[in-house]
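Wed. Picked up where I left off yesterday with Orotidine 5'-phosphate decarboxylase. The coffee machine is broken again, so keeping this brief.
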Amino acid sequence: MKTAPTAPEPFGARLRGAMDTRGPLCVGIDPHAELLADWGLSDDVAGLERFTRTVVEALAGEVAVLKPQSAFFERHGSRGVAVLERAVADARAAGALVLMDAKRGDIGSTMGAYASAYLTEGSPLFSDALTVSPYLGFGSLRPALDAARDSGAGVFVLALTSNPEGAEVQRATVADDGSRGPVMLAQRMLDRIARENADATPLGSVGAVVGATLGDTGADLAINGPLLAPGLGAQGATAADLPRVFGDRVRDVLPSVSRGVLRSGPAPRALRAAAERSVQELADALG
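Structure written out below (tokens, as returned):
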């Protein structure tokens, strides 16, 4: 008699465990030309590969999440994407969760194809989670949401991003689909995320991207899911800002740091030390 396949552990549960064990830190892998030059590397596939391998080998066994920015690999063509594929596999093998920062958003079969690429087990780019854009309508994300659920992966939905231009769309007022009257479009997205996470424990697998630079967000962040918080370091936010921005949801925050750690390279020991300092700063600020 065949036994039914075991359902994969949901991303939200795995993320909660990783944050509690390794600390709530996401380190971006952003090999842009300036940073490659700072490391004394060439702005080509060889430099990209050396940079990426160093970061993964130094940090994948230490931090909760690594977040490669897909664009910096795609700009080098197929050989750059091959570097990204290896980085994803090596990071996951070493115990880090991989959040692919690709911000994909489309409709129908195209969104389904993105879901197959990033959220379907067996794909060379299969990641633990993917950033997605809901501004073609939250329903357009359904192929990604379904694929993530089936594979035990997660998605992080752009809600209130740290770039100033985002407010033009995200803070636009729309009719509420409940009884509160007009709300921000970003709040509508947060409400839909909360529905996806209903009854999930210890944490839902659908997260939101909410910038750490925003101050008072003016939003209800009770989504029962993780809150990815970019903006620390180079964009001006600090660990001390997080309790003010996220209030009583701060335990669900996954702060993201890129240059604040990466500029400590290329020595692996220096990268690990910078990540450890960031984790400690976050622990001090978040209690």
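Quick read: The longest strand covers residues 97-104.
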